[in-house]
Design brief:
It is a single chain. The protein contains eight helices and five strands, in the order ααααααβββαββα. The chain is an alpha+beta fold. It has a five-stranded antiparallel beta sheet, with helices on one face. It is globular and about 50 Å long. The N terminus is likely disordered.
Length: 206
């Protein structure tokens, strides 16, 4: 099992939720935490515990970002006038690896990061190999010609468990996508409930 796959399943089991909605998630078989004490009865979680869990779940969903990366995005969201939680989600959804994942060019968010790193993607006709690159509204993302027949790309397009959200226009015959608009929290097709308000509370208090 690759490190990325292992990490993906470990996050699911740690959270006790199938956070990507994948049919092979171990949580589909057993909904308790990993380890020998995973089946112990859970006590009531503290406010800090709930906030920490919300942060870990959101951070894990976007490819298990490092704490430094995630805090930097939070700090940026905090500086913008408006609902910080909504702005945080908007910034995460504008990451190039997220857009590649949402457009169904790859099967997982972990694969999206690697796909961008390996220069399989162009933005407005220019090669971009930085997963955290911030996509703007109207930007066109395309898979380079030599990469369109990769097995992982062909597999992703056929995945039945998720659809392309309406803030992205994808053309799988040409393997192109346009980022239409920055989504609100309610627009994002999370398989589980995300609570960015608790993430904001966590950073405000810690």
């Amino acid at each position: 099992m690759t490190k990325r796959t292992s990490a993906k399943y470990k996050i699911d089991r740690r959270m006790g939720e199938n956070i990507w909605g994948r049919p092979k998630s171990p949580v589909n078989r057993r909904e308790y935490a990993p380890g020998q004490h995973g089946q112990r009865r859970k006590g009531k979680m503290s406010d800090f515990g709930l906030q920490l869990r919300a942060k870990q779940k959101l951070k894990g969903y976007y490819g298990d970002l490092t704490e430094k990366q995630f805090r930097r995005i939070y700090s940026e969201a905090e500086r913008v006038r408006g609902d910080t939680g909504e702005i945080l989600i908007g910034l995460l959804e504008r990451r190039l690896d997220t857009v590649v994942y949402r457009a169904k060019f790859v099967p997982t968010i972990f694969a999206a990061r690697q796909f961008v790193n390996h220069a399989h993607v162009r933005v407005n006709g220019k090669k971009v190999n930085i997963p955290s690159y911030r996509v703007k509204e109207g930007d066109v993302i395309e898979v380079r010609d030599r990469s369109k027949q990769l097995a992982s790309v062909l597999e992703a397009v056929q995945l039945p468990e998720r659809d392309v959200p309406d803030y992205i226009e994808a053309d799988h015959s040409k393997m192109t996508a346009r980022f239409v608009r920055t989504p609100a929290l309610s627009d994002v097709p999370y398989p589980v409930m995300m609570e960015p308000n608790l993430v904001i509370e966590f950073y405000a208090q810690n």
